[in-house]
Predict the 3D structure of the following.
Amino acid sequence: MKFDWKWDFAFEILPRLLRATLNTLMAAGVGYAIAMVLGLVFALALRSPWRLPRAVLGEVLEFIRSTPLVVQIFFIFYVGPQVGITLSPWVAGMTAIGLHYSAYLAEVYRAGIEAVPRGQWEACRALNMTTRDSYVRIVLPQALPHAMPGMGNYLVGIFKDTPMLSVIGVTELMQAANSIGSETYRFLEPYTLVGVIFLALSLPTAGLVRLGERRLRRKLGL
Amino acid sequence: MWEFLQTYGPRLFDGALVTSAQFVLAALVACVAALGAGLGRLSALWPVRSLAILYIELFRGTSLLVQLYWIFFVLPLLGISLPKFEAGFLSVGLNVGAYGAEIVRGAIQAVPKGQWEAGYALSMSPAKRMRRIILPQALVLMLPPWGNLMIELLKGTALVALISVPDLMFVAKQINGATFRSAEAFGAALLIYYLLARFLITPAMRKLEQVMARRLGRA
Amino acid sequence: MDLSAYPLELPEGDCPMVRFMNVTKSYGQLVVLDNLNLDIQRGEMVSVIGPSGSGKTTVLRMLMTLETINGGVIYVDGKPLTHMARGGRLVPADEAHLRRMRASIGMCFQHFNLFPHMTALQNCMEGPVQVLGLSKAEARARAEDLLAMVGMLEKKDQHPSRLSGGQQQRVAIARALAMRPRIMLFDEVTSALDPEVIGEVTEVIRTLVAEHDLTMLMVTHQMGFARDISDRICFFYKGRIEEQAGPEQFFTNPQKERTQQFLRAVKDAD
């Protein structure tokens, strides 16, 4: 076979791929939202004064970060029914991705919080602020700009990891390309278009992340 | 769980061996690619720089899985047919190499300007200066982030199972398909990956950091 | 630590504003405060001086509950700060007790520690609104009064990054005062300032001493200033009070050898 790009075929499959892209974006969005919230919970839990739960949580998060996401996806998808929870591919995929990236974001948040100078905590204590208020009103707002580059990188990363969901049948972009490929026996156009779509989405997003970070710094007067 | 390991242990072990082989080969590809692209990115020659940037943005901007499928399914249509094992570590290596290139570039740029000037004052050729003065110092600077990248590399190798390379994940999937003992199969696989990462790769990288730092008189 | 020797409350006739009773503080093997006994009366202005490592900053930090205590008890306004009464005995204080006691103590830091993402006004309103539960309007009125008092009213909408060190420190003083503390702690508040702006800050403290009956504890290297406004000077050396006296007596007729050495060294540095 030779290099044989068929433009009309490419345009024919494009709408289907774009529809699947929407799914991909939604998967990335939901996964990231879960990761952002869960990651903050973990980051705060890692700062708790109880040593044993802290150490255990730290090890568990390290485990999640060090093992392949695709295997974690399989694990959650297949083990779910065995413990009585039937998970649709979508839910299993979101759970796995959300959990995986929450472990990364927990690190990012932690580094951001620790970048806030100790004097700020002492000023909060001198003003007799509660721990909750100290975090919410003083420390986290200052931790955010430090965390943003990491958060942005992982947003792009989560988007690029969505094709892994195809292995459990989630109908996202990669899956759509696979389907087209097996239906028509033409892989060149689908896979290339998928690559192009990814580039078209991830490069500007990375740029926007940098822009957003600069603006946030300015707004916070830092 | 214990009898599971006794029955399927050997197969998992074989899978882990394939994973390790993929890891080592992909790491080599990544190092070469990262060095080449990192240096290329800093080249004074415009075509070299553009090529490096193209490689880096292309492989960082798309997903590893997409690259893997592309190299395995599409390249043959363009005349380059790679067996799956080679396609596997090549994709992973090139993907990680793109990230590594940025680390290399950052580390080289972090070497103090005075070092470049000293090499220049000693009338060293740019190549010699790079090789004997800049790179050794950059090497120490780039090792910590490379440590993390190596873990990412290990995780990336799991995807080669999707083009049927019989690595650890492939074996786990097979066992799962045959026995439906998903928790044991995938759980064991996860554990082995974790052990490889935490007790082989991370300590090795840390040791490398120490050795390099000592050689530079910085320890 | 046997706490039975310590009263649950100080008796009416013997109730200073602050009492350090046999207070010890160590970091591992290093003893920073060694069986410290110190009384500070209501409305008194005490300056704490001494070489670095003498424990003087630790005294302030322990009073502000930024550091824990290793031995002894600290009393504030007759009640224990570091401990609380439980079933007729003294036990280490829990967070709720500390928060109650902390309400009457305010502190200003060497590096100001203003909140960088808030304006001067917001900095001064934060405590009253979040902790004291004042309405925004009340907090604003109070904050503006205090900013006016420290001479920073026209900069109230500026962020700390736009203010000089002296200006920031004055805002920090207003912020602390907004909580209406009974005790004010100043931890080397001029040490991080350029010489030409030190005066702005010392002026504010001077006003405070003259016009309010706050109890104040100040760690400082500004000898002249300390001499001017203090009721008492405490000289710390290696975790103990080496000598203490009224300012006139202290500076003109120091009794101990170490005090004399220190004052000589400080004079030479001037």
